[in-house]
């Protein structure tokens, strides 16, 4: 499955690419898609298994993670719901 992560800073995106969470592979940095709003203009597109879950962001750098669907996105992780 393909996922997109958005970040609060470009540094967070770079760290995600360098040190991806377990089960994440093929990380590519790119501009954030227009329909995903974020504080930073850089996102990470990556692949993970269908059962991928994410619940721990120790550095607090990830804004959200969405699963890419044929007709949109499904939110997998949203830091705003954790605050």
Mind explaining what this structure looks like?
With 83 residues, this protein is mostly beta strands. The chain has one helix and five strands, in the order βαββββ. It has one helix spanning 10-18, and strands at residues 2-7, 25-31, 42-47, 62-69, 72-78. It has one domain. Helix content is 11%, strand content 41%. The protein has a five-stranded antiparallel sheet, covered by helices on one side.
Output the radius of gyration: 11 Å
Largest sheet composition: 5 strands, antiparallel
| Number of helical elements | 1
SSE order: EHEEEE
Q: How would you sum up the global shape?
A: globular
Q: Which residues sit in consecutive blocks of at least 5 with pLDDT less than 50? A: none
Q: Which sequence of strands runs across the widest sheet?
A: 2-3-1-4-5
Question: Helical amount among residues, as a percent range?
Answer: 10-25%
């Amino acid at each position: 499955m393909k996922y997109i992560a958005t970040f609060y800073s470009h540094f967070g995106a770079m760290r995600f690419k360098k040190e991806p969470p377990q089960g994440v592979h093929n990380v590519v940095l790119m501009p954030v898609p227009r329909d995903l709003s974020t504080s930073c203009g850089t996102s990470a597109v990556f692949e993970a298994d269908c059962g991928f879950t994410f619940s721990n962001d120790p550095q607090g750098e990830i804004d959200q993670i969405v699963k890419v669907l044929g007709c949109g996105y499904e939110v997998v992780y949203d830091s705003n719901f954790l605050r």
